[in-house]
Amino acid sequence: MSDIRFEDKVVIVTGAGGGIGRAHALLFAKHGAKVVVNDLGGSTQGEGANSEAALKVVEEIKAAGGTAIANPDSVVDGDKIVQCAMDNFGRVDVVVNNAGILRDKSFAKMTDTDWDLVYKVHVEGAYKVTHAAWNQMKEQNFGRIIFTSSTSGIYGNFGQANYGMAKLGLYGLTRTLAIEGRKNNIFVNAIAPTGGTRMTEGLFPPGAFEKLKPELVSPLVVYLCSEHCQETGSLFEVGGGWMGKVRWERSLGIGFNPDEGFTPEDVQANFEQLCSFENAVHPKDNIEALKELMQNIQKFS
Ligand code: NAD
Q1: Candidates 22, 97, 101, 238: which one to mutate for ligand 1, based on the most atoms within 8 Å of Cβ?
Q2: Which secondary-structure segment (H or E) carries 166?
Q3: Residue 277 DSSP one-character state
Q4: Distance between Cα 120 and ligand 1 center (Å)
Q5: CB of 104 sitting under 6 A from ligand 1
Q6: Cβ proximity of 22 and 41 under 8 Å
Q7: Domains annotated on the chain, with CATH
Q8: What is the pTM of this model?
Q9: CB of 251 closer than 6 A to ligand 1?
Q10: Please, what is the Cα angle at 121 between 118 and 125, to 5 degrees?
């Protein structure tokens, strides 16, 4: 075990004016990082803007002896946030994509605005900030990126079709950027946090909200972003002092002769076996995922 320090590192945390992002920013600063505290300062539904939120967190960091700068841009203008890091600190080593909003409605009642705004902040915003920092990270041969997913994306949740789509989309982005970044020492992971913030007020049973302190999410994020950590392409659920890793599991499946063809009734007759998780596999990449399919072709050749 070694000390986890960020003295020569510049960290951008988006949506760091409150909640979980604020906790990340404070912990990175405590571990020596120069932090860009980004926050648009709007409502949970993505309305309005207020630069005070980010400024307040910067004051907190400075009061504790740390280094930080506030940035009030929206994540959809990600290039401005990265430019702010470059102008003030000269580099970007870590991007924690944390900014988020909610526009919860049952799918029947969801409007195009609800769909678009959630997509814009979570997916387009994370893309814009990360894309603006990517080439810097490649050039310096170091980068750490976190995307903030959600159990609502992994497992689904009533009233969160837009949010679930965006949050699982970020895991897809994580998987591919981990592959593309590996050779340049750019490691990319996703977290699905649970924390007592303004976003989750009233959602948890009495007593749980206070226990789900946002700062209980941050040690995992800070570790994943350290030089010592070689983890990439992974997804972690984290909150309330607990954390665990998530992976895909797929049934071993069934195979028909591709030359002879088969009917929907054949699928019906074998459906239980198709869905059986006995001897399930855990493909790590596309090649592993295609293994059983390729074996089936070979078996009947
Ligand atoms: P929060 O509302 O306290 O924090 C989100 C922050 O993002 C706010 O400060 C907000 O001003 C900022 N923000 C919103 N839109 C922005 C934009 N366009 N540009 C810049 N900043 C913007 O909520 P939180 O619970 O701390 O959420 C943090 C992240 O964690 C979000 O991505 C959220 O979806 C995710 N998440 C939270 C939970 C939970 O249990 N709290 C669960 C799953 C996922």
Answers
A1: 101
A2: helix 161-181
A3: -
A4: 13
A5: no
A6: no
A7: 10-246 (3.40.50.720), 247-301 (1.10.287.4290)
A8: 0.98
A9: no
A10: 145
Q: Is 35 helix (H, G, I), strand (E, B) or coil?
A: strand
**Residue 291 CA, ligand 1 centroid: distance in Å:** 39
Q: Which two tokens stand for residue 106?
A: 């049952």
In this structure, which amino acid lies at residue 171? Y
Which among 26, 1, 6 is positioned nearest to 227, based on CA atoms? 6
Q: Residue with the nearest Cα to atom 34 of ligand 1? A: 100
List the chain pLDDT tens, one digit each, 301 residues. 779 999 999 999 999 999 999 999 999 999 999 999 999 999 999 999 999 999 999 999 999 999 999 999 999 999 999 999 999 999 999 999 999 999 999 999 999 999 999 999 999 999 999 999 999 999 999 999 999 999 999 999 999 999 999 999 999 999 999 999 999 999 999 999 999 999 999 999 889 999 999 999 999 999 999 999 999 999 999 999 999 999 999 999 999 999 999 999 999 999 999 999 999 999 999 999 999 999 999 999 8
ipTM, two decimals? 0.99
196 within ligand 1 shell (Cβ under 6 A): no
Q: In angstroms, what is the span from residue 277 Cα to ligand 1's centroid? A: 36
**Centroid of ligand 1 to alpha carbon of 89 (angstroms):** 25
Other beta carbons within 10 angstroms of residue 269's beta carbon come to 12
> Rounded to whole angstroms, how far apart are CA atoms 56 and 70?
9
Evaluate: CB of 194 within 6 angstroms of ligand 1: yes
Among 12, 146, 197, say which to mutate for ligand 1: greatest number of ligand atoms within 8 Å of CB.
Answer: 197
E strands, 10-128, where? Answer: 10-13, 34-38, 67-71, 94-97
